[in-house]
Design a protein that fits this description.
Blueprint (H helix, E strand, L loop, with lengths): L3 E8 L4 H15 L5 E6 L7 H11 L4 E6 L3 E3 L2 E3 L4 E8 L5 E6 L1 H6 L3 H8 L8 E6 L6 H11 L5 E5 L9 E3 L2 E3 L3 E6 L3 E8 L2 E3 L4 E7 L2 E5 L2 E2 H10 L6 H4 L3 E6 L12 E10 L4 E4 L8 E7 L1 H16 L5 E9 L3 H5 L4 H10 L4 E6 L2 E5 L2 E5 L3 E8 L1
Parallel strand pairs: 2-3, 8-9, 22-23
Antiparallel strand pairs: 1-6, 2-6, 3-10, 4-5, 4-23, 7-12, 8-12, 9-24, 10-11, 13-26, 14-21, 15-16, 15-21, 16-17, 16-20, 18-19, 18-21, 19-20, 22-26, 24-25
């Protein structure tokens, strides 16, 4: 069997006919029964979730269906914001090429680290080529779990997103119903690969420099200067006419590796600057940086985000082989609100990578690797390009 995929986005409220039409058209497009479906829906579809899942599984001939709620949904060249709808992608895959793992809160609580998860899943690092993860943002333990999961499956791409909603109806779904599990994970195995695309939407400003004094999440000195003074210098490096508009869009980039001679975009994990105290010269950041770690301040705006996504997409295009489908996890803070135009991320990927079947949603947080390790991000576009090995 040659793996294939087909996707469709539907705009509107629940309609039995619409669901049947989409499911049947996708099955006909891939030319065989699907093995796996990934579905993202807006909260308006929650009262009809079970009916929707049953119709997709029946008319798309999909034995396994995974997905979640989204503030908005994304399809090929389309991003649906402020309107009800769903996005569905069906994959025809060999049954042994993937498996779906449901992770309970009890398991996360009793976990003892990386070995625990390999035993719990029955999958070693050699068995898996990539993970796609969906998580409920109401569960506070996602980052801790992700850190353990990354240790259990080192250097294996882990991409995904946290479910979202315009209201309170946030849910994950598996097969025929909503699941109480805080995390769902799809293991991709032999025969499938994933190319990772992570665009944090920033460009560096100022110069990279090591942290010389820090306590927990406080940076006291950068390059033997008060951290606040280093931030001020980076801010003043921005052209004067741009400073007012970017004042609240400054972030800190933490180098993910010290074995880099020439730091550039993509070499830093972007984290929020939570506060600044000019009196003592300290910065509070949304991380626990260490003394000796290289940092560089970052600027996020629509221009930076656009350029960063283009660069990330072009890097992925180099050497891309056998792509069959894309899962796109885009921050709810992106979209038209950031770029001033609709369909930005979906259009950019299609223009650079081609018209590959795509499904995605606007997330409460995005998961993707930086420097070979998975992190939870904000304001990011994270995409998994599934390829035939």
């Amino acid at each position: 069997m040659t793996p294939r995929a087909a996707s469709r986005v539907f705009i509107g409220k629940y309609s039995e006919k619409a669901v049947i039409d989409v499911a049947e058209s996708l099955r006909h497009e891939i030319g065989t029964n699907a093995a796996l479906g990934v579905l993202f829906l807006t909260e308006e579809w929650r009262p009809h979730l079970e009916d929707t899942l049953e119709l997709i599984r029946l008319h798309g001939h999909v034995p396994q269906l995974v997905g979640c709620s989204g503030w908005g949904v994304i399809g090929s060249r389309r991003e649906i914001e402020h309107a009800p709808g769903f996005s569905l992608i069906l994959f025809s895959l060999p049954a042994e090429s993937f498996s779906v793992v449901e992770i309970s809160e009890t398991q996360i609580d009793e976990s003892t680290g990386a070995d625990y998860w390999r035993v719990a899943t029955g999958l070693s690092a050699k068995d898996v080529t990539a993970w796609i993860v969906l998580a409920n943002p109401h569960f506070a333990g996602t980052e801790g779990w992700l850190d353990e999961w990354s240790s259990a499956y080192p250097k294996i791409p882990i991409l995904g997103g946290l479910a979202s909603s315009t209201g309170s109806e946030i849910f994950l779904l598996k097969d025929g119903e909503a699941t109480p599990a805080p995390v769902l994970a799809i293991a991709l195995k032999r025969g499938l690969l994933v190319r990772s695309l992570v665009s944090q939407g920033c460009r560096p400003i100022g110069d990279p420099s090591p942290i010389t004094k820090a306590e927990q999440n406080l940076i006291l000195e950068i390059g033997n200067l008060p951290a606040y003074q280093a931030l001020e210098a980076a801010f003043l490096s921005i052209p004067a006419e741009q400073r007012v508009s970017v004042r609240n869009n400054l972030f800190l980039g933490l180098a993910v590796s010290e074995y880099i001679e020439d730091f550039k975009q993509g070499d830093f994990l972007i984290r929020n600057i939570l506060g600044a105290d000019p009196q003592i010269g300290a910065l509070a950041v949304g991380a626990h940086p260490r003394v000796g770690q290289t940092v560089q301040f970052q600027l996020r705006d629509s221009k930076s985000a656009r350029e960063d996504l283009v660069l990330a997409s072009e890097n992925v295009k180099t050497g891309l082989s056998g792509p069959i489908g894309i899962l796109l996890f885009s921050c709810a803070g992106r979209g038209k609100g950031l770029f001033g135009t609709s369909d930005h991320d979906a259009e950019t990927l299609a223009n650079i990578l081609g018209n590959i079947p795509l499904a995605g949603f606007f997330c409460n947080g995005e998961v993707g690797p930086v420097g070979g390790k998975a992190f939870l991000h904000g304001y990011t576009a994270s995409a998994a390009i599934l390829c035939v090995a």
